[in-house]
Amino acid sequence: MTNTPPIKRVLYVVSLFPCWSETFIVREIQTLIADGVDVRILSLKPPSEKLVQVDAKALSERTHYPDLGLGGVISTAMTVILHPFTSLTCIAAIVADMWRTPTVLLKSLVALSRGLQQVRWLNGFDPQLVHAHWATYPSTVAWALARITGRRFSFTCHAHDIFLDHQLLSRKVEEAALAVTISRYNIDWLSQHVSAQALPKLAVIHCGVDVQRTACQLDGRNGQHIVAVGRLDPIKGFDVLIDALHLLSERGIDYRCTVIGEGPLRTELEAKSRARSISERIDWVGALPQEAVQAALRDAAIFALPCQVAADGNRDGIPVALMEAMASGCAVVTTAVSGIPELVEDGVDGLLVAERDATALANALQQLIEHAELRRRLAIAARARVETDFDAQTEARKLRTLMSSAANGRKRLLVVIDEMEVGGSQRQTVQLLTHLDRNRWQPELVYFRERSFLIDELERAGVRVHHLPKRGRIDPGFFLALARVLRRGRYDIVHAFSLTAEIWTLLALRMQRQRPPFVGSIRGLYLNQTMWFWRIKRFILSRSAAVISNSAAGADVAARLGCHDRENIDVIGNGVQIPAPISTRERIILREQTGVPDDRVFALFVGRLVDQKNVFCLLDAIAALPAEQRPWLALVGDGPLRARLSAHVDKIGIGAQTVFLGERTDSTSLMQIADFLVLPSHEEGMSNVLLEAMAAGCPVIASAVGGNPELVSHEHTGLLFPSDDRTALARCITRLTGDAALRKSLSCQARVRAESQHSNSALALATQKVYERCMDADDARARSARRSPASPTSESDHA
Q1: Beta-sheet pairing, 493-496 with 464-467
Q2: Residue 63 included in any domain
Q3: Which of 54, 161, 326, 418 yields a CA-CA distance of 20 to 30 A from 669?
């Protein structure tokens, strides 16, 4: 996103800082700070490392540690008291996910308690994003802090934290603003374990090395010196390395190996080297400062790291030590495990061997020991590869861009509607959700019942759809499901499109710790509704951050009945897609399929067969005309009055020229072959049918009710008649039936009106502005509350 403002404040959450083996985090943070980002670090454990890198020491003033005494317990308890629902929800989710592994569960709850005590400190820093390294305990804490404080969170996952430990992984990815990982291999693995809707959040950022500070020395290296750097655990394959070195000794190859690192296997590995009678050739130097590691890499000509997949499925990501060796000028030999082939291409910038194959590893090491030119060629290519794709500063700046988008970028919108049966509001919902700027919005839909092809359209467009079946007027299960979607979705704004959707959504939002702005709707005139309807509507709209009406007439009625101040109701007319013209052949085929005689004028009605649409008025008006002036009539749509209307057609003698087509997906094509469309409704807000007909170039006749006069300018873009006036409607039908020139004139003007004033892009843009205004006001209130000297905001303080 080119216009996204750069992120300014980030809170990093890590298990332990500083950590000797996580120098890549230090480099990442240093680059962000150098680029003007204010970074703070929350370490879930107090400092305990014996060796601390110089660069990490420089970040000590930015690091915050938990209080392990009584003060920390009190702070945690205060957070739970002030935020009971969200805190207990997080605890319940952790218990439900991890109860089968008590040790992991206990560690997660301890980490959570240490995170919860930081809420006041976090609010004081006011980060735009909470970012965790590792998808285990740190990201659990980041997830909980984001839920409690209403902020966005992201995390970086590496290796064991996804391959071995799946701590709320899918849920974290779904709720995160961004999920970073270190290789394409990891992306492919994650895509099999998270929902399809969460995939766009995944991104690759390599850990990288500081290329500028890593000198590449090709000359003066000891061609028989092999170095290996890594934690001494099963996934590094040091046992295989010992076997390979033993084979080299048996072959009479002279070498020296330095192993840098500590770990649980050190005693076992040293014993194995003694058993193989090669202990005098291996130096087990333990963990070293970064400067000493670099010195070893400058002296050795060969770097070996035979990574492997452990018995429990654990494996490496892309080892940073491997990148450091390549950057320093070592020729490397490793295995094609996990994401390593993304760093090393066999024979080009290193050598790859099969995992657990000591013979293949020994052969590769022997080849490098004996061929200096091969070592040099591989080392030069390796340095170039790291400079191009694994430079820490470049990767950190990529991450900063992603963080900026995550913090300021796509906003999560939830639209709620009761049913998705084909109708005006339903079509407008689809038009809105499919025309929002996807660089700025991540739209989702909740509906209760009546699936239609419109849902298929949304899903094809990549809009996530939640179907929450509602049984009866009061359905506790449905209500809890809706509350759960709202809680997990972490939406920035919620927009409801019908009274049922509005009331249940508003009530469910009252259960949320973080309540996004709620937008209510006026989708018609509601002239036949009871006073109870208007009392409920008044309750809803008075608690809405904004109210959007699709017609000025609807807004006027709502204001007159005291639902909302008229000046605070936004009028945004419906949008319409200008259809591509159908061919002459398609016109002929469609007329034949619908049974339209070649010599008859074709009149069309599209809409639900309900009282509001007043179809009886249309039928009676046609019946009142002389037989030779009657158009051929097609009724598109279905509803409870279909049987009565069919009987009425036969009763008044127009059955031979009237056909009921039912629901159709090609109504806009029918509008293009019809000579005119009639909409005789008792009431309308902003009619989608009129808009679609005008966009299709179909002349329209409409009753002068509601929002119809806002669309149809009489004698200019269509014809209007007084509501329920059969005689006036018959005159309009007679005019259009007998005057082709008038039909053509109205058609042209109507299409221009629809295209210029009611495009779907205009609908989406105007609605986005309302959403942004609501979110800006909500953000301003939240910032004011966080900076208030009063006590921390509790859940009951939010409307």
Answers
A1: unpaired
A2: yes
A3: 418
617: in domain = yes
Would you call 248 helix, strand, or coil by DSSP? helix
Pair (650, 618) in one structural domain: yes
Cβ-count burial 372-382 (b if 16+ within 10 Å, e if not): eeebbebbebb
Whether 328 is in a domain gets the answer: yes
**Cα 591–Cα 595–Cα 597 angle in degrees, nearest 5:** 80
Q: In this structure, are 518 and 628 located in the same domain?
A: no
CATH number at residue 746: 3.40.50.2000
**Which of 571, 605, 623 lies at the terminal end of a domain, its last residue?**
571
CA distance 141 to 130: 10
**Domain shared by 531 and 604, yes or no:** no
Whether residues 468 and 522 fall in one domain: yes
Residue type, 724: D
**Contact in structure between 695 and 579 (CB atoms under 8 Å):** yes
Residue that is written with structure tokens 């609908």 in the block = 763
- For residue 23, what pLDDT is reported? 83
Tell which residue, 501, 498, 438, has the closest CA to residue 464: 438
β-bridge pairing 63-64 and 38-45: parallel
Is the residue at 263 inside a domain? yes
Helix/strand/coil percent split, the chain, to 5: 50, 20, 35
Q: What is the pLDDT of residue 788?
A: 56
Please identify which residue in the block is written with the tokens 């950190």. Answer: 396
664 contact partners, CB below 8 Å, separation of at least 6: 636, 670
Rg value, the chain, Cα = 34
d(CA 608, CA 602): 20
Half-sphere exposure of 435 (CA within 13 A, CB side): 21
- Nearest Cα neighbor of 553 from 530, 520, 518, 527 is 527
**DSSP assignment of 281-347:** GEEEEES--HHHHHHHHHHEEEEEE-----TTS---SS-HHHHHHHHHT-EEEEE--TTGGGT--BT
- 605 shares its domain with 656: yes
Q: Are 344 and 367 in contact (CB under 8 A)?
A: no
Q: Cα dist. 676→424, 614, 743, 751 in Å? A: 19, 17, 8, 13
Claim to verify: residue 550 and residue 605 sit in the same structural domain: no
Buried b / exposed e across 489-527, counting CB within 10 Å, b at 16+? bbbbbbbbbbbbbbebbbebbebbbbbbbbbbbbbbbbe
The torsion angles phi and psi of 636, rounded to 5 degrees, stand at -105, 125
234 vs 303, 308, 312, 500, CA distance in Å?
18, 8, 10, 58
Residue-number span of the structural domain to which 349 is assigned: 211-385
* pLDDT tens figures, 685-744: 788 899 999 999 999 999 999 889 988 999 999 999 999 999 999 999 999 999 999 999
Edge-to-edge strands, sheet with 441-449? 464-467, 441-449, 411-419, 493-496, 518-522, 546-549, 569-571
- pLDDT at position 3 is 62
Number of domains observed in the structure of the chain: 4
- The CATH number linked to 39 is 3.40.50
User: If you search the block for the tokens 């009106």, which residue do you land on?
Assistant: 753
DSSP secondary structure letter of residue 504: H
Other Cβ atoms less than 10 A from the Cβ of 578: the count is 17
Residue 796's pLDDT is 40
472 contacts 461 by C-beta, under 8 angstroms: no
Same domain, 476 and 372: no
Best CA proximity match to 15, nearest among 128, 161, 195: 161
Which residue type is seen at 503? I
Judgement on whether residues 352 and 243 belong to the same structural domain of the protein: yes
Segments in the chain below pLDDT 50: 1-2, 789-799
Q: Please give the pLDDT value at position 726.
A: 96
Q: Which of 180, 204, 228 is at the close of a domain?
A: 204
Of residues 187, 130, 143, 108, the one with CA closest to residue 9: 130
Token pair listed for 701: 């006749």
